[in-house]
Amino acid sequence: MTLYGIGLGPGATDLLTVRGKRRLESADIVYSPGRLSRRVAAEYVPDSKLGDLEFPMTTDPEELEAAWEAAAAEVAPNARDADAAFVTLGDPCIYSTFGHLRRTLREQHPSVDIEVVPGVSSVTAFASVLGIDIDAGAELTLREATDGEAPIGPNRLILFKVTDAPTTYEKMTEAGYEVTFGRRLFMDTEEALVTNDPGEVTDRDYYTLAYAKKRAATGSK
């Protein structure tokens, strides 16, 4: 039997892949780490097949490790006896809780077979909304930017988890970047926002992205 790590896409129920849909529908139990991923999964499986796993919003390593171990202990017996699924927004391998669960299962429950079902990443979803084309050979870096962080260096960045947009914006513009924010894109029940104004995204929101592109040097052609 197998545990499937299924990427649900950025939040819209019709952006789930065909393979993801098939794996969801065939699984005997489907675990969700949060309300938004549960809502998408509930479009394809009955509530009786859904199970919730708790992952605290903290940076404390001991608390996080305990949560991952508890989740692995919950999932492992079911994945050995039947097909199970763990769903996550976006892609299971990109800034996802699934990576921690998979690592813990490999370390503590190595008999569990694991298969990843890729999902539409918020990276490509965000680029499509802004009409951005990342040409062949263009440099693009993915980074986290929580609590006002502002990673710089490459000419283009996509920043995840921008929870203090005004501070990140100030630092990035001072470093020579043009910055555009996107919030809760492709979430059926949420109002999406795309803006260049950090004043419109002053509240902390885990689902805020930023696209930063370095301005051309003065006098360049």
TrEMBL record:
Entry GO MF terms: cobalt-factor II C20-methyltransferase activity; precorrin-2 C20-methyltransferase activity
UniProt keyword annotation of Nucleotide-binding present: no
Top EC class of this enzyme: transferase
Source taxon at top rank: Archaea
EC code(s) of this entry: 2.1.1.151
Pathway where it operates: Cofactor biosynthesis; adenosylcobalamin biosynthesis
Keywords: Cobalamin biosynthesis, Methyltransferase, Transferase
Pfam families referenced in this protein's UniProt entry, alphabetically: TP_methylase
CDD domains found in the cross-reference section: Precorrin_2_C20_MT
Family: Belongs to the precorrin methyltransferase family.
PANTHER family from the UniProt entry: COBALT-PRECORRIN-2 C(20)-METHYLTRANSFERASE
Name of protein: Cobalt-precorrin-2 C(20)-methyltransferase
Organism this protein belongs to: Halorubrum californiense DSM 19288
Species lineage: Archaea, Methanobacteriati, Methanobacteriota, Stenosarchaea group, Halobacteria
